[in-house]
Specification:
Blueprint lengths: L4 E6 L9 H12 L5 E6 L22 H11 L3 E7 L7 H8 L9 E7 L5 H13 L3 E2 L4 E3 L1 H8 L9 H36 L1
């Protein structure tokens, strides 16, 4: 079986976003992991409108062409790590909207989070965990929380994320968890597919 493919989803599209910094940092750590393949997925490349379909794609096919391509893209992956900026104690609207535009494509795949903001994006991450459960994902326990002091130090150029050891340790744990669950759940989905084909024969 091929290596699980993990998406690093950039959860902000603002021109002045900080997201590029943690994205490149966690992607470098993830790409060093021998058991997974990694791709950065930037929501700037997916100009989805605010959700405007007749229903979730779990119940009715999406009509929007970008949404259809987005769903196919999500389906390519075996697991996800999301960067999670916190706006008003919540994840960004653009990330929630992108999540809502897919449904079954998220199912039975792990989700991990790199949060940042005043409390390390913890409130945004907790909401995203609840959303992940509803989508039948497997949110992992390990997470990265870039707290306000570290965020400001990096933003102002005083430090780099790779200089902050407790964040490096958290990132390694996160990647290990996502890789483990991605491998296990990929095998389980493959077994389900084989069983389904046997029943249909």
């Amino acid at each position: 079986m091929s290596k699980p493919k993990i998406a690093i989803v950039v959860g902000s599209t603002r021109a002045a976003r900080f997201a590029d910094v943690p994205t490149q940092w966690i992607a470098k750590i993830a790409k060093a992991h021998a058991d997974i393949d990694v791709e950065i997925v930037d929501l700037r490349d997916w100009p989805l409108p605010f959700f405007d379909e007749v229903a979730s794609s779990a119940w009715a096919p999406s009509q929007n062409e970008v949404a259809q391509r987005w769903q196919k893209k999500v389906a390519e992956f075996d697991g996800f790590i999301f960067t999670a900026a916190e706006y008003n104690h919540a994840p960004t609207g653009v990330l929630k909207n992108a999540i809502d535009y897919a449904a079954n494509e998220w199912n039975k795949k792990p989700a991990g989070f790199v949060g940042y903001g005043s409390v390390g994006g913890a409130r945004a991450v907790e909401q995203l965990r609840l959303i992940a459960v509803e989508l039948q994902m497997a949110p992992v326990k390990s997470a990265v929380h870039i707290a306000w002091g570290d965020f400001l130090a990096v933003r102002q150029g005083e430090k780099k994320l790779e200089d902050i050891e407790h964040l490096n340790q958290a990132a390694a744990a996160l990647v290990n968890d996502v890789a483990w669950w991605a491998k296990v759940l990929k095998a389980a989905r493959a077994a389900d597919a084989i069983a389904g084909e046997a029943q249909a024969a």
